[in-house]
């Protein structure tokens, strides 16, 4: 699918904001939605990226969207990597699972090293594994909330 936007808008996003155009437009769209719809879309986006996760960036996007869904449900804000880390710590505490922080640190490293330099195959494999484990932990957390009736309106079939 291809969408055309005016050159003026495209150039402003790239030159003035220094951001990826697609990500910027997705974020603008998501911020315009009601909370309930945003949570549903976060869950669907996470699933979509998880299915396609063959590289660090795609796997990170799957994780980031499922984390954003959880953050919305827990009334937390995610606007920085520190916020993602704080959510990982929160989940670690709530689930009594110290491995969650280890999973997150490796997932974040997978994402952080995607652009500047290639990772060796073993490091990449291990970090992908940890990122996918954390996605599973996050999905299980959402399932638990769903079974308690907190997610009935979100159709959380993670």
Q: List low-confidence stretches.
A: none
Strand content: under 5%
Cα distance spanning the termini: 25 Å
Shape: globular
**Whole-number average pLDDT?**
88
**What is the quaternary state of this protein?**
single chain
**Helix amount, in percent?**
over 70%
Structural class estimated from helices and strands = mainly alpha
Q: How many E-type strands?
A: 0
Specify Rg, calculated over alpha carbons: 16 Å
* Major sheet description: none
| Tally of domains | 1
- Tell me the CATH architecture: Up-down Bundle
What is the CATH topology?
Answer: Four Helix Bundle (Hemerythrin (Met), subunit A)
How many H/I helical runs? 7
Order of helices and strands: HHHHHHH
Query: What is the CATH C level class, in words?
Result: Mainly Alpha
Pfam families: PaREP1
InterPro entries: PaREP1
């Amino acid at each position: 699918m291809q969408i055309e936007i005016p050159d003026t808008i495209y150039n402003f996003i790239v030159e003035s904001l220094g951001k990826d155009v697609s990500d910027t437009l997705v974020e603008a769209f998501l911020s315009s939605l009601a909370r309930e719809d945003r949570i549903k879309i976060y869950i669907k986006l996470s699933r979509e990226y998880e299915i396609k996760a063959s590289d660090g960036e795609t796997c990170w996007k799957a994780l980031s969207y499922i984390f954003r869904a959880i953050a919305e449900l827990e009334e937390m804000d995610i606007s920085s990597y520190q916020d993602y880390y704080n959510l990982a710590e929160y989940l670690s505490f709530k689930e009594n699972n110290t491995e969650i922080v280890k999973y997150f640190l490796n997932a974040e490293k997978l994402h952080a090293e995607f652009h500047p330099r290639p990772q060796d195959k073993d490091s990449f494999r291990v970090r992908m594994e940890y990122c996918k484990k954390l996605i599973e932990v996050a999905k299980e957390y959402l399932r638990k909330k769903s079974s308690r009736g907190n997610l009935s309106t979100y159709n959380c079939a993670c």
